[in-house]
Design a protein that fits this description.
There is one protein chain. Helix 4 links the parallel strand 1 and strand 2 (106-111). The chain is an alpha/beta fold. It has helices spanning 23-30, 38-50, 54-75, 94-101, 114-123, 140-145, 147-152, 176-186, 205-218, 226-231, and strands at 80-84, 106-111, 130-134, 160-164, 192-198, 237-238, 244-245, 267-273. The longest helix is centred in the first third of the chain and has 22 residues, at 54-75. The radius of gyration is 18 Å and the shape is globular. Mean pLDDT is 86; it is low at 1-16.
């Protein structure tokens, strides 16, 4: 999900109306991408000022996503993945990591941002195992009933549900726990759920300041405690090492120690299996 702030100035005939900042494009900027506008860069720069090591954080988010996908396809044996809130295509996309393990793995990318959808469809035009659909995490019933999703994913077989960097954009009043429960209830036994979520770590001033910048720039952000993140996976069997920081989730053997960096304490990840 890549919600746009809908507050825009009145249109003026003949004038260019620049797009408001967008979560996916801010993330693209922080990753060093080029698919972003001035408004996105302005938000990204404010985040950088507040949290100078933010680039390490977004890089490690991509790194843990790669490790999780390799685990789901290589060790858990899944051949179906649904990536909700996939964001703009970048290096080592989910389908690329999955297909490096098993080329038959089917992948569905879901986002509600037109820019994301256009880029993803262009990238995947000739990829029969991978498809893209317009959908909103906050509307799980509509998403689950989507004929594109149902045509590409067999819900009689285990599915990997990827919620990477998306739930912290669902506010408490939008009932994220209920949304996750509805999605999990639709998954067959043997499916897995992956969550990456930004944390508000007690009195951590850096986390609070970064959340404030996100809220101001893109209109929404809700960091949560580690316990609140773990609660999203209640009723599922956690995969070792449980809900931990990004750097602590099954790091590659050649990865230098990173957990001491404060920015990496601002996000938790967890993978769990549906019995």
């Amino acid at each position: 999900m890549s919600d746009q702030d809908t507050r825009t100035a009145p249109a003026v005939a003949g004038a260019y109306d620049p797009p408001p900042p967008n979560i996916a494009r801010v993330y693209d900027y922080l990753l060093g991408g080029k698919d972003n506008y001035a408004a996105d860069r302005a938000v990204g720069e404010r985040i950088e000022q507040t949290l100078p090591a933010v680039h390490l954080g977004v890089q490690q988010q991509r790194a843990v996503l790669r490790r999780v996908v390799r685990y789901l396809v290589g060790e858990a044996g899944l051949r179906q993945l649904v990536d909700l809130g996939s964001g703009l295509p970048t290096a080592d996309n989910v389908h690329q990591v999955a297909h490096a393990v098993d080329r038959s793995t089917r992948v569905v990318y879901v986002d509600n941002d037109p820019v994301v959808l256009t880029h993803a469809r262009a990238l995947l035009a000739d990829n029969k195992e991978t498809t893209v659909l317009a959908g909103d995490l906050r509307e799980p019933a509509a998403l689950l009933a989507d004929p594109v999703l149902r045509g590409h994913i067999d819900f009689d077989q285990p599915v990997g549900l990827l919620l990477c960097g998306i739930l912290h954009y669902v506010l408490d009043e939008e009932e994220p726990a209920l949304i996750v429960r509805q999605l999990v209830d639709a998954l067959p036994s043997g499916s897995y759920v992956f969550i990456h979520h930004l944390l508000v770590a007690g009195e951590d001033a850096e986390a609070a300041a970064a959340e404030a910048v996100l809220r101001q720039g893109v209109g929404r952000a809700q960091f949560r405690t580690p316990a609140a993140v773990a609660a999203f996976l209640d009723g599922l069997a956690l995969v070792d090492p449980g809900v931990v920081t990004v750097a602590e989730w099954r790091p590659d053997a050649d990865t230098p120690p990173l957990s001491a960096n404060p920015v990496l304490r601002l996000a938790a990840v967890g993978v769990a299996r549906k019995p």
